[in-house]
Design goal:
Chain A is an alpha/beta fold and 221 residues long. Chain A has two domains: 37 residues, no CATH class; 172 residues, Lipoprotein like domain (Double Stranded RNA Binding Domain, 2-Layer Sandwich), CATH 3.30.160.150. Helices cover 34% and strands 33% of the residues of chain A. Chain A has six helices and ten strands, in the order E-E-H-E-E-H-E-E-H-E-E-H-E-E-H-H. Chain B is built from six helices and six strands; from the N terminus they run αββαβαααβββα. Classes of the chains: A alpha/beta (221), B alpha/beta (221). Chains A and B meet through strand 10 and helix 5 of A and loops of B.
Chain lengths: 221, 221
């Protein structure tokens, strides 16, 4: 029902408007409170192309669902629930790493096997995230948001036999002062991912089991 | 008219700055100098080695060193790191100038370095820390009005170093350092009057001026 009043200065006020204002306030308040209780970091960035001589290998790459849609959530006491979505960024990062690191890289549908599509490959790589951790400035008594990621590169023969699993630990940190909270955390994640890329690009050909199995080099230094 | 009003305002601002002592030192190892088409890049040393230099400080030095009639041309740090990816990531960056010649012989890096025009890499270390604090300041608000009473103070120490690597010579050209100690005070009798010692800004200015002097002005050893 719409009621009208005439104010002393002749302006007509609609009661419907007042009702809308009363209803809006709790909605806005609830949204603000929910915003304070949940933070979602969806990593969106472009990674630079690594400057490296590619290895003479033809490698199949298989991204499992848990990797290409990786999310991590943690509800911190006296803070927000933090959710990290690394899926798109993971595939972008590793597409870039592998295409720079190997002569030929192909997407495949599994970690090797009897299928003829695997036959002419030198190896199949299945990257995974084993662990994800983060810390806030108040936890570390610093001005830094920090992120740790432990990637694991599972490397298979074309036939599907595991050659080695190579764990790669990565760390990134970002100043609280330079960005807002969410932007600083996102920056820390990106730095950790770049750190992983640096370790993989530079360390791949030095990893003893990889040297021995794929590069036909003695694993002894 | 405008000048008359600005002079007291400027004097008030000067009088509201806290006390600071600044020490700037320089050591030069080799002849310097820079051509008009050459640039410098200013990078923060790795946090993997415990360095906590703030991004803000590096940005400040990069901006300040470009000012004046002997201002240096600065290549943006993020662009340089991306162009050299992954060789200047915190985990992989060269640890000494002697590593530069071999690094820049890598395929791809030489061309990118030439395209950047970068002649000197400046590595910044150090940070700003609160060294002491004390006093007490309390504020109250009532329906009749509000106000503050008391005195709070704190001391900040900004200590930074910049190591200058000459890429062309493949060795260290020198080092400049700055230490700024400042005491900030907020006395309050009804209205608080903050007198802030901006030690980080002073350190930035000191370091930038000294860098400009060492690279562009001094020339031969």
């Amino acid at each position: 029902m719409r009621t009208r009043w005439a104010s002393p200065n002749g302006v007509i006020i609609l009661s419907e408007m007042a009702t809308v204002r009363i209803l809006t306030c709790p909605v806005v308040l609830a949204a603000l409170l929910l915003g304070a209780c949940a933070k979602t970091i969806t990593v969106k960035t472009e990674f630079p192309e690594p400057v490296i001589q590619p290895l003479p290998l033809k490698v199949g790459v298989y991204y499992e669902e848990g990797f290409s849609h990786y999310t991590y959530s943690e509800d911190l006491p006296n803070d927000a629930e933090w959710t990290f979505d690394l899926g798109d960024a993971n595939t972008k990062l590793f597409d870039g790493i592998f295409s720079a690191l190997f002569n030929i890289t192909l997407p495949v549908t599994g970690p090797g096997g009897p299928d003829p599509s695997f036959a002419d490959l030198d190896a199949v790589i299945v990257p995974a995230i084993d662990a994800f951790e983060f810390s806030l400035p108040r936890q570390s008594h610093s001005e830094q948001f920090a992120v740790w990621i432990r990637y694991n590169l599972h490397i298979y023969t074309p036939g599907g036999t595991l050659i080695t699993s190579w764990p790669v630990s990565a760390y990134g940190q970002s100043d609280e002062q330079n960005f807002g909270t969410s932007a600083a955390m996102q920056e820390a994640v990106i730095k950790a991912m770049r750190d992983a890329a640096a370790s993989i690009v530079i360390g791949f050909a030095k990893e003893p089991k990889i040297k021995e199995a794929l590069l036909n080099e003695d694993s002894e230094p | 008219m405008m000048q008359k009003t600005m002079i007291p305002a400027a004097m008030l601002l000067i009088s509201l700055t806290g006390c600071m002592t600044t020490r700037v030192e320089e050591s030069k190892n080799a002849a310097t100098g820079i051509l008009t088409n050459e640039r410098i890049v200013i990078l923060e040393a790795s946090y993997h080695s415990g360095n906590e230099t703030e991004d803000k400080f590096v940005d400040c030095v990069s901006k300040t060193v470009q000012k004046g009639n002997r201002g240096l041309n600065v290549f943006p740090d993020d662009e340089f790191i991306d162009a050299m990816f992954p060789w200047f990531e915190p985990r992989t960056m060269p640890r000494g100038p002697e590593a530069l010649p071999a690094l820049f012989e890598r395929p791809g890096l030489t061309e990118r370095l030439k395209a950047s025009g970068v002649r000197y890499i400046i590595w910044v270390t150090g940070d700003t820390e609160k060294s002491a604090s004390g006093g007490s300041l309390s504020c109250a608000v009532s329906p009749a009005g509000g106000g503050c009473f008391g005195l709070a103070w704190w001391e900040d120490d900004s200590s930074y170093k910049a190591a200058i690597w000459d890429i062309r010579a493949g060795k260290s050209a020198g080092e400049v350092s700055t230490k700024v100690h400042g005491t900030s005070v907020i006395p309050a009798v009804i209205i608080p009057v903050p007198m802030i010692a901006r030690t980080r800004a002073a350190a930035c200015k000191g370091l930038a001026n000294e860098l400009r002097q060492l690279i562009a002005v001094e020339g031969p050893l």
